[in-house]
Design goal:
single chain, alpha/beta, Nucleotidyltransferase, domain 5, five-stranded mixed beta sheet, transferase, tRNA threonylcarbamoyladenosine biosynthesis protein TsaB
Length: 239
């Protein structure tokens, strides 16, 4: 059993999860603009009096986004601080992928589908990414993007003629502005937000492949542009 702590704060939800030999425990709270104030109190609640230093964690997993700029910084900074203190690596996981995995866990009857995962970008745009689900394997179809709703198009790729079209995430508040090929065909779950417990499958695959990061190189995926944020390595040493 992998021993991992996961944090996602890319959306209005603050989500934490712990995986160890006792299984998986998680806390998921929809608490807009309160992530920074409540993250560590929620972590204490998750630990039930245990100390992180005693859990022999292998990595800290963080939701790298895209999503709220402030929320992404909070998750990255928390992951860096915890990983540095424990002298362990970090693993960044797409919040859009996690959102799809949350849907697939909570709606286990979902059959082969093409899925649009989208998060409200708060500026009349959405962050989005397309995935194909064949009933057992989730495959990304292209990179994460930011777009106005009417410009979203399905990617070329696998034949989905006999598959369902699904939508998940807060970006679906703009569904009526999306093209008819999406608006008129998709079954949607706009209330689903990424839950940290659904980061563990992707994180375990990264851990097995050795695809971990030194905490110094943890960074959010803003998608829109390279604004402001620099990894600790890029910032250099402070005199």
């Amino acid at each position: 059993m992998n021993r991992l702590l996961a944090i996602d704060s890319a959306t209005d939800a603050l989500s934490l999860a712990l995986a160890d030999e006792r299984g998986c425990e998680s806390l998921h709270r929809v608490m807009p603009r309160q992530h920074q104030q409540l993250l560590f109190s929620l972590l204490d609640e998750l630990l039930h009096g245990r100390k992180l230093s005693e859990l022999n964690l292998q990595a800290i997993v963080y939701g790298r986004g895209p999503g709220s700029f402030t929320g992404l910084r909070i998750a990255v900074s928390a992951a860096q601080g915890l990983a540095f203190s424990l002298k362990i690596p970090v693993i960044g996981v797409s919040s859009l992928e996690t959102q799809v995995r949350t849907l697939l866990r909570t709606e286990p009857g979902v059959g082969p589908s093409r899925i649009l995962s989208c998060i409200d970008a708060r500026i009349g745009q959405v962050y989005g990414q397309w995935f194909d689900w064949d009933g057992s394997v989730l495959i990304s179809r292209g990179e994460a993007f930011v777009a106005v709703p009417e410009a979203i198009e399905q990617p070329n790729g696998a034949d989905t003629q006999h598959s369902s079209l699904l939508g998940v995430g807060s970006g679906l508040r703009f569904l009526e502005a999306m093209p008819e090929t999406i608006r008129g065909q998709a079954t949607c779950w706009p209330e689903v937000l990424p839950e940290a417990r659904d980061m563990f499958l992707t994180a375990a695959q990264a851990l097995e492949a050795g695809e971990v990061q030194d905490p110094m190189f943890a960074a959010p995926d803003y998608v829109q542009t390279r604004i402001g944020w620099k990894t600790l390595a890029e910032q250099g040493r402070v005199a």
